[in-house]
Design brief:
The chain is of the alpha+beta class and 608 residues long. The protein has 22 helices and 15 strands. Helix 3 packs parallel to helix 6, helix 10 runs antiparallel to helix 13 and helix 15 runs antiparallel to helix 16.
């Protein structure tokens, strides 16, 4: 048994380094250098080397220093181009997230939520140089202490002052304080985009954004009340509570576009007929933020796996024969779990690429198409970030006690993923919204062909589409049969099945993206690897649903009986290629060299 286990590992060692086509497929092919190259080089520099033993305040300061290095990389007006380039912006988060979770957060706020919002609202009329040169760091204030997922109910007001033509920004009660934005004096002078309810002559016109300076070199400006929040889990950022005490803003502070403009007489004109739609248009950058959060956690998951797989090959343990040692990776109980996570990470990556493609190609003037793409982004964000949490926890566990030490590069990752799960729309909430829309606005896939084989990728994919249809049918029946006259009661009866439908839909979309990438592979070895990665992903995700598929007649008892052995054979085929599969993640050598667990001499470096 030992000989059987060690032989594939020697083969894998011989073949590692042959991952170039896999890397090209994972990282946007011919567009790889433009999208990913600058960020990969950036984090390879000395400024991004691990720094241990820092206080939370020092870690926050370091993240701001690195944010300026990001800005130096894009240089001047390039910051505007970055905010408009969805692929490069998401890639920034993929590559920075696993080296500095705080930087990942700050970059998302400054480039996407702040600068992106300015550009989306007649930004060409403003002088953006203080923000593109980072003389002032941008932040985004929307969520309030009493209003998170019900942010459409926020209470901060911007009252039109007809005497001056400007606005008075005010926080009317403690619950209306802006919750968690990075508004402290760390990182230098800051300006915010603030979501506030526009009041004109006492009439609520809906929520709009207002450009609001917060601080200068001397401190916070008059009327700006900021208090630091306690340190949270994960990499620290200067999260604060922020309130406004009748802060006066000029007329040009309001961010305007077709969904809302004030004429010279202070009358609101809008292309949208209701306040909710105006709000959603005002905070439209949250959609791109979901892609950024997905990208950040995706990079964390891949980095965690790269460390864990290398450690599994370096860690030597007792062998059956006295006096012999063997790599931890020789055990199926170890490499099997890592391969399950690797298959999911590949599916996550290709799903993210496919969703970015849809976002980049959609017509923003087509309301129906935009709604569909935004829903897909929300579904993908929930699925990717939840999978990233599972993967980083699994990878940490596979490194044992060594993985608990931050200096080994893996301990902080699960906690940083938690931030991505909550940011830009809490996963469960955005999935509930998607579920309610998909009940009738979307049709799940057709039943698979009969008598398929468990090794047949098309058959496996269609089985997952069938799972989606099963749950959609159940959810529709629950909604129709729910208590009449009780909307909450009806949805309570429906939501469980509807959320299972969304989860199944996410798996189908991930499978489609993975299979499409497999079809693009030209080298036989690459095709072999990706086909088996896809097969493992589809098989492992099928296990919880065999009962439903058996009842529906899409699986036979023989299929169910063979599921474990078929999956195990796929794992055996992939086990020799563990290193190749993580080498394809293309992590910089500088990062790996600075991560003790990723190196054969990790024992000598521990505690040094």
């Amino acid at each position: 048994m030992l000989q059987h286990a060690e032989a594939p590992l020697r083969q894998g060692a011989d073949e590692s380094g042959g991952a170039e086509e896999l890397t090209c497929l994972l990282f946007d092919g011919d567009d790889r250098e433009r999208v990913h190259g600058e960020w990969r080089r950036l984090i390879s520099g000395e400024a991004f080397a691990p720094r241990t033993g820092l206080t939370p305040a020092e870690r926050t300061d370091l993240s701001y220093e690195r944010l300026r290095l990001v800005n130096d990389t894009v240089a001047g007006a390039g910051a505007e181009a970055l905010s408009y380039d969805a692929r490069r912006l998401a890639a920034l988060h993929e590559w920075t997230g696993f080296v500095d979770g705080g930087l990942c957060t700050l970059a998302s706020i400054h480039y996407n939520l702040f600068l992106g919002s300015l550009l989306d609202h007649d930004g060409y009329r403003r002088d953006l140089s203080p923000y593109t040169a980072m003389e002032r760091t941008g932040t985004f204030l929307c969520t309030e202490l009493a209003h998170g997922n019900d942010v459409t109910s926020l209470e901060t007001v911007a009252v039109l002052d007809r005497a001056t033509g400007g606005f008075v920004l005010h926080t009317p009660n403690p619950g209306a304080r802006k919750f968690m934005p990075n508004t402290s004096l760390a990182g230098g002078p800051k300006t915010a985009v603030v979501a506030a309810r526009l009041l004109i002559d006492g009439q609520d016109q809906g929520i709009f954004l207002f450009l609001t300076p917060l601080s200068d070199a001397e401190g916070h400006l008059p009327g700006i009340r900021v208090s630091r929040l306690p340190d949270r889990t994960g990499t620290p950022v200067d999260h604060c509570l922020t309130a406004f005490d009748h802060v006066r803003l000029p007329r040009e502070a309001m961010l305007e576009a077709a969904h809302g403009r004030l004429d010279k007489d202070g009358r609101l004109t809008s292309s949208l007929g209701n306040r909710r739609k105006r709000f959603l248009r005002s905070v439209g950058r949250v959609t791109m933020g979901k892609l950024c959060m997905s990208g950040g956690t995706l990079g964390m998951a891949r980095a965690a796996l790269a460390i864990a797989v290398r450690y599994a090959h370096h860690r030597r343990i007792g062998a059956p024969r006295a006096g012999e040692r063997m790599p931890l990776a020789a055990h199926r109980s170890h490499h099997g779990r890592l391969l399950h996570s690797l298959a999911t990470a590949y599916a996550m990556t290709f799903l993210h690429r496919s969703v970015l493609d849809r976002w980049a190609a959609h017509d923003p003037t087509d309301a129906e198409e935009r709604e569909e793409v935004e829903r897909l982004i929300a579904v993908a964000k929930g699925w990717i970030t939840w999978q990233a949490r599972d993967i980083t926890v699994e990878a940490r566990e596979r490194c044992g006690a060594q993985g608990l030490f931050p200096g080994n590069g893996i301990a902080d990752l699960p906690l940083n993923v938690e931030g991505g799960i909550t940011a830009e729309g809490d996963n469960l909430v955005i999935w509930v919204k998607a579920a309610s829309e998909m009940l009738f606005a979307h049709e799940a896939g057709a039943a698979p062909a009969p008598r398929g084989e468990l090794t047949d990728l098309a058959f496996l994919r269609d089985l997952h589409a069938c799972v989606e249809r099963v749950w959609q049918t159940r959810a529709r029946a629950a909604l129709r049969g729910g208590p009449s006259g009780d909307p909450v009661g009806r949805w309570n009866e429906t939501s469980g099945a509807a959320l299972e439908m969304v989860a199944a839909h996410a798996r189908v979309r991930a499978a489609d993206a993975l299979l499409a990438a497999t079809a693009r592979a030209s080298a036989p070895r690459t095709r072999f690897l990706l086909e088996n990665v896809a097969r493992l992903f589809l098989l492992q995700e099928l296990r919880p649903h065999t009962g439903d598929l058996l009842v529906a007649g899409h699986l036979t008892a023989a299929h169910v009986e063979a599921l474990h052995s078929t999956t195990d054979h796929v794992i055996a085929d992939l086990a020799p290629h563990l290193m190749t599969l993580v080498d394809a993640f293309d992590l910089p050598e500088e990062f790996l060299a600075a991560t003790p667990l990723a190196n054969a001499d990790y024992l000598d470096r521990f505690g040094a």
